[in-house]
Amino acid sequence: MLKGHTKNKGLLLVIIGAIFWGVGGTVSQKLFQDYSILVNWLVTVRLLIAGILLLTIQCVRKGYFHIISIWRNKKTAVQIIIFGLLGMLAVQYTYMASINHGNAAVATLLQYLAPVMIIVYLLLRKLTIFTKQDLMTLTLALLGTFLLLTNGSISGLSVPVISIFWGILSGVALAFYTLYAIPLLKEFDSLVVVGWAMAIGGVTLSFIHPPWQADFSNFTAEIYMYLIFVIIFGTMFAFWFYIESLQYLSPKETSLIGNLEPLSAVLTMVVWLGEPFGFLQWLGMACIIGVTLLLAFNKKASYENN
How far apart (Å, rounded) are the C-alpha atoms in residues 6 and 268? Predict the structure, then answer.
């Protein structure tokens, strides 16, 4: 059992993280469409800068030796490299690749198969039991995401096989990202774990898409403002809060509430970019909010992996 205030803290963290992630996605989409910013360049820059900022914050707070302690043990050094490449970088790159070959709706739908993958994994490992509430929350989450992104029409979901391939991989990456972080969080601060993961992912991608290869002469004040938002809120705080919530919630709770990410992205597009919003999308929004409320008012905290 978790104490009420600790679970509430976890809920608040994942809700804020998901909202930042969703809004950051909408801002990123504007950068791609209106300012011709390259997807791969943005992924590299956001990971590098956000990672360096998080490690700098922790260095100021607790000292240099605190942030390098993760490298002093061979086992944890290998774990953080795996997490940085197969978790952090994989989540970012596969999602963007799915969008690039298809569209954001399909990419997001496939990525948010992650809660299903997590629950199946936990069941196979006999780390949890499948309850009626799991069935209800999982159904609401998947139905809500589908309605929210498609307004009930499957006509917009026709995309190349390569987009579906990358989208399914993004779901696997998000599930892995959520589960693999837990052992590291038992030993190290979330700032250290997320900071190094971002830095590792950013440095690796720099060999393919160097961050200095951009036409900075065409960058306006507005572009820099959007970039700062994506890096600080849409990347640094979003991923940090998501991972930090795993210290208070179970992986399946965190991944289910993470469905607020497409909700915040769609609402931002409606309010800011003037996109239309249909009745079935409102119904989808209600389903996702219902998932959050069900988990928030559930007195029993399923904290299997901790």
Answer: 29
Q: What angle do CA 81, 87, 90 make, to 5 degrees?
A: 110
Is 0.70 surpassed by the pTM of this model? yes
- Structural tokens at position 81: 């490299």
User: What's the CA gap between 63 and 44, in Å, rounded?
Assistant: 27
Could you give the CA distance from residue 282 to residue 279 in angstroms, rounded to a whole number? 5
Q: Where are the alpha helices (DSSP H) in 83-189?
A: 90-101, 104-111, 114-124, 132-150, 161-187
Question: pLDDT tens digit string along 24-83?
Answer: 888 887 888 788 888 889 999 999 999 999 999 999 988 888 899 999 999 999 999 999
List the one residue out of 37, 32, 46 whose CA is nearest residue 199. Answer: 46
**Contact call for residues 290 and 138 (beta carbons, < 8 A):** no
The whole-angstrom separation of Cα 224 and Cα 149 is: 29
Residue 136: partners with Cβ closer than 8 Å, 6 or more residues away: 294
Nearest to 130 by CA among 147, 116, 148, 114: 116
